[in-house]
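Hello,

Our lab assistant flagged a job as stuck in the queue for most of the afternoon. It eventually completed. Since we weren't sure the result was trustworthy after the delay, we are filing this so someone can double-check. Below is the sequence as submitted and the structure that was eventually returned. Let us know if re-running is recommended.
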Amino acid sequence: MKTLKRYQYERYAVLCNLSYKRVFKQSNYGFSPRGQRVINNRFGQTFIRVLWNNHDDEVIIVIKGSHNLWDWVLTTRIWHKSCQEFGLEYSIHSGFHHLLSQESLPKYNHDTLGVTVFERLLSVISPLIKQGKRITLTGHSSGGAIGCIIGDAIEKQYPKSIKRVVTFGQPAIGGRLFSNKYSLKHKTYRICCDLDIVTFLPPIPFLYCHAGKLLWLYNQKIYENTPTIIRFLRSISSWVLRPFTYHLMSKYIRNKDYFDER
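-- returned structure --
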């Protein structure tokens, strides 16, 4: 697996952050003036942005995390549901499945009713793939989990079309069968920041697990593929010891910038 470069990390992190904004002008971030297509959810809200530059071979699909009460409720549906309708041979979190199979309300005049989010997205990216472009998927929280499923499904239909998958604060998606059958493990980077509790969810060993390369940003270092149990124990220790760390002189030195130069 290749290393994720800093500029790539920063670009995908910025795009994931901006995905929660109501207005996004793609040309301000290096994409073509007409290089954006929006996929709505069942409420007519922006759910997925497809971004590209006509002079670049990379298409970036950015997926929002949970951004309304109903989406948060869906995260409690922790039973598994088959992904056969997406052309995949495993089951995933029922809530994530619902987000992909929900109806996508029309955004543009040529959009029709009765089309799922997955179907709408596939209709947008298929012509781009046929032009020779490759797909990068990125998303925050449940958006990252959904990005993995979308990427795997696209790779099944269009082999070697996926460039990479980069997720931020992603919860687990499925069980051992998912982990074994997921075909993009060598192209998937799961970014976890410090003590992000969502990355431990759902907290059901064996029924839920991760796939891909973990990059854990912790104590000003990057740790690769730290086992979940070790990460959990370190997190618990940090929560217990954190009040005492504020007594260390290093904290006082680090905060020297609060004082004006005299």
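-- support follow-up --
The delay was a queue issue, not a problem with the job. The result is valid. The domain at 6-228 is CATH 3.40.50.1820 (Rossmann fold). The chain has one domain: 6-228.
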